[in-house]
Amino acid sequence: MHILFFTRLFLYVLAFSLPVIHPSVVVPYDHIGWWMWFFLVPGEMFIGFYLAPPRLRVLPWLVSAAGFLLVTTFVISGFSSYTLYAIIAGSVVFLLTVLIFKAGTRGHMLAVIEQFFIGFLYYKLLTFSRSSESAAAASAGLNRVITILIVLAFLVHGVVIYKAAFHGGKRKRKYHEILMFIVVTVPLILVIILILPENFVSHSVVLNLFKPEPKPKPIPLADEGGDIFGGNLQTRNWMDGPWMRERGPSGRRPGDYMGENGRRGDPRDSDSFPGQGRLEGIPADDWNNQRTGTGGENKQYAVMVVATTLDRVYAANAYHGRFDKEMGFMLSGDSYLESELNELAYTRLLDTWKNRENKRDLMRYPGEVFYLSTIPERVLAYRPLTIEPTVLNRKYHPFDYSYRSVSLISGSGPQEWFEVRGLDDEEKNYLSNYLEVPLSGEVRDAFESYLEDEVGEKEGYYEKILGIFKSFSSFQYELGFTDDVSIGKMEMFLMQTRQGDCTEFSNSAAILARMSGVPSRVVNGYLAARELQTFAHIRALRMLREVIDPLKKFPVRDLFLVTTAHRHSWVQLYMPGYGWVDFDPASFAIPPVGFGDPNSMDVVIPLIQIEEEKPVFELPWLLILQGLAMALFGMIVALYVFRFGKELHLRYLSGGRSLRSLKAIYNLLLLKLSSNGYTLKEPSRTPLEYAERYPELNRFASLYTDLRYRESYKPGEKNMLWDEMLQSYNEAVSSCKKTGLLYSFRRLFSLRGLYYLW
Question: Is the pTM here over 0.70, yes or no?
Fold first, then answer.
């Protein structure tokens, strides 16, 4: 039995280990998964086998199993959706272990059936290796090793089950072997016929050994005007800042792109830009999901589609509030307010996440945003209120990830900000981390000199912010996204080059804001804005909307195509009373021109072709469960019909005075006793030996034995003994009955007597 236990445990542990060791089963365990499959399940197996009676009494044994299950479940997973799964898994494993090892031959038969479940589990896991040609190639060698290991494990386990079931060896077991062969082979044949697809063995594997994957060449898509705003090919500036009054050197109003997610404008009333890029496509199968830079070769590649009624979305995935005197702004740690926001970019959600922060900023309104993305990390507009779990659907590859969120968007603007007072003492203490600027003497002097020369002395809170932003009006904005945000780089940007990408503008603005007494932090992510949507973007959205069903729920005017050129860095400043507000310092600079203008870059999208899905065999689980339920119900009904029918037959036979009638009376008594909770009589015990345990049966057992085995009687003596035996039978039946409604139901529905009727 010990060998059987460990071979069974090995089969389960090997199955649980496949997602860890197999390169194609990309389902990593979280800490709850590790605990459940490698601690809880084996632990319940050990309790069910090694602590079973007689090592422990029944009650302490069951309490140990339940206590281990409940305590460890609530300690690890708490009250979550995992709790129910863990309790069910632990209970089923414990029950199966008890039945297999404590139910004798029937338990061994259950162990045989259990192998088919484990085999099906292995089959489902190994089919992951056929998910793609690259996966099949990566796991070809390992599949052979695992297959050999699985076959050997099943063979050893099967031999151990056979030895455990037929360990006696003193009796002929031919019919047992035939039954075992039928139980094993018939389900195996059914599994092969019904489950395994015809092409399970044969599949093609393409290998490009020692050769780089060829770079796909974008396919130009025809330029057709259609009916999009008159069909013209000019880029439109859809957003016109309603609160700024003066235009900068670029001819554009400073702050057109600044502030929170903007307000709806009319595209027909805005100016147009003279240049735009073409729309090109790459087959979805050749798409490279790692295109996360600014694009290349004057091209911008699709990253996500954003659906919202807002005019712009600052979709953030990284907040930098921690400041280093040499490295500059760095990702915020646990001691910062936004640490949870950084974790949300990668956190796996099982249920809708809700913001528990009880913070009442003025003029914040809920805005719903739907994201359809090619990248797994989550981006969110500030301040997230609710986030639904990410849905993985490869039907529209590479747009594999979709999720929906609601954020509290700030509706405040300069009209309100001009009235903002300074920070009070409580806010200064609360936001002290965001006011730190630990710069060395010379570097600090350089930044203070810039503030004094370019910004001057401003008294108002918002006037200081606006002065910093306006100082960038003579700076040249360049397309790009650099990771070098060191203090030396920012100093060179302000004092010498006066040109840079969004990271230079955001990081330098955040430093200057802190030195002016304004809490700040740098935010990275993507900017979805209407002024960044060219005609090529709109045509791309129309094409994608035709083939991607989730996008059909939204009108084209509510869709944004976010590309690699829209990767962005901006600054969040704390506005007393209104909370953290997004600002884009780069919008005040001289915009890029020529090939540096993102609007002149070609837009590249995946060409998605929805093929008719091939029918995949799926087990009709509901039908199977219904069939099993009906079979179980029919079996129970059949057992009761058999039980009561057999009892009626015995009553009929007991009416005579033959040996057959005597046996029928004896079986009727045993049936009555079992229904009233008496211990079942072992076949090896005689009636007299069984009566030693229950004195009320002594007289019947003595008379039954006399009539059963005595050969000669005096005249009339046998009839007298028979009458006494019937009287003692009635007395025994009456004495074994317990009063009460519960015992009446027990006598009526008990099936324990079937033990004597087979």
Answer: no
